[in-house]
Design a protein that fits this description.
Elements lengths: L12 E7 L7 H12 L3 E7 L5 H10 L4 E4 L13 E2 L1 H6 L4 E5 L2 E5 L2 H13 L7 E5 L3 H11 L5 E6 L2 H11 L5 E5 L3 H4 L5 E4 L24 E4 L8 H8 L3 E3 L2 H16 L5 H12 L1
Parallel strand pairs: 1-2, 1-3, 4-6, 7-8, 7-10, 8-9, 10-11, 11-12
Antiparallel strand pairs: 3-5, 5-6
Bound molecules: 2'-monophosphoadenosine-5'-diphosphate.
Family: Belongs to the shikimate dehydrogenase family.
Function: Involved in the biosynthesis of the chorismate, which leads to the biosynthesis of aromatic amino acids. Catalyzes the reversible NADPH linked reduction of 3-dehydroshikimate (DHSA) to yield shikimate (SA).
Subunit structure: Homodimer.
Length: about 290
């Protein structure tokens, strides 16, 4: 893929996603559709970059005058060492998924958490202020989301994780921002009756193990909001069962679209064509 890059870029706007693996990324399809809809001459490339090549890849991207980069697994933390500036929220989250290049100065942002929250609010119409939220999992994906949720002034956030220490550490870290606590998985059932929104940030239920669910959906109170970061499948077992129980469900596709939308807005300064982006991704998932 690097070989396909122009040596003398003549497009107005060059964009890329770097990761390993990268072939399955839906970002190129989504952003190329968005550029076309906005009438911007440009192209978004998928670039396979291994851990050893991260530094040289960033130098090359800077030299070639790329306007923007998305960063995905496994580089979201390591890439912070190669940018010139890091936005405050990305720095608190400790991960960068979006880079903006302004005349050779690279700034790192994190649009995963805010993308998730924007999608949750848009798709379920929930007002998170004063709500009680349970986050399942305490890994990298949970970090950005908890940070973004904290900005919405919920009543409380409860982190439930298999390894209690990780949840305790995370709660400790964010306690100056929000009322937050940590529990183990066996305490979930007792607390769920007080919860308004449950969010699965673990990969349990992801393709190909689609029959799995991180918690028994039978214990979810009917009528609450249940959200899953997974978007393959679009509706996980957890969401399917929760829907049958009368819950409002929210899948992970919206997070993916909206993290891309925020990134595109940094790069272009224009509102992202969200519906065009969603249609392009859905078409490529078929
Ligand atoms: P990511 O960056 O995608 O969040 P991660 O940092 O590896 O990935 O975190 C995965 C999360 O899923 C963790 O909270 C993990 O729990 P542990 O901290 O106990 O490892 C959780 N997880 C993964 N597999 C799990 C399983 N089989 N049961 C319960 N939780 C699981």
């Amino acid at each position: 893929l690097w070989r396909e890059l122009p040596s003398q870029p003549n497009k107005t706007m060059l964009l890329a996603v770097i990761g390993d693996p990268i072939v399955h990324s839906k970002s190129p399809v989504m952003h190329n559709a968005a550029l076309a809809a906005l009438g911007i001459e440009g192209e978004y490339f998928p670039l396979h970059v291994s851990r050893e090549d991260l530094g040289s890849a960033i130098s090359r991207i800077r030299e070639l005058g790329f306007r923007g980069i998305n960063v995905t697994i496994p580089h979201k933390v390591d890439v912070m060492a190669y940018v010139d500036r890091i936005d405050d929220s990305a720095s608190r989250i400790g991960a960068v998924n979006t880079i903006l290049n302004e005349n050779g100065i690279l700034t790192g942002y994190n649009t995963d958490g805010i993308g998730y929250v924007r999608s949750l609010k848009d798709e379920t119409q929930v007002d998170l202020r004063g709500k009680s939220i349970m986050v399942l999992g305490a890994g990298g994906a949970a970090r950005g989301i908890i940070y973004a949720l904290a900005q919405e002034e919920p009543k409380t956030i409860v982190i439930a994780n298999r390894t209690e220490d990780k949840a305790i550490q995370m709660a400790e870290e964010w306690k100056s921002l929000v009322n937050i606590s940590a529990i183990t998985m066996d305490k979930i059932e007792g607390i769920l009756p007080d919860i308004d929104v449950v969010i699965n940030t673990t990969s349990i239920g992801m393709h190909p193990k689609t029959s799995q669910s991180v918690i028994d959906p039978e214990m979810i109170p009917p009528g609450i909001i249940v959200s899953d970061l997974i978007y393959n499948p679009l509706t996980t077992e957890l969401l399917k069962k929760s829907h049958e129980r009368g819950c409002t469900i929210h899948g992970g596709l919206g997070m993916f679209i909206n993290q891309g939308a925020y990134a595109l807005e940094y790069w272009t300064g224009m509102p992202a064509p969200i519906e065009t982006m969603r249609t392009a991704v859905l078409k490529s998932l078929q």
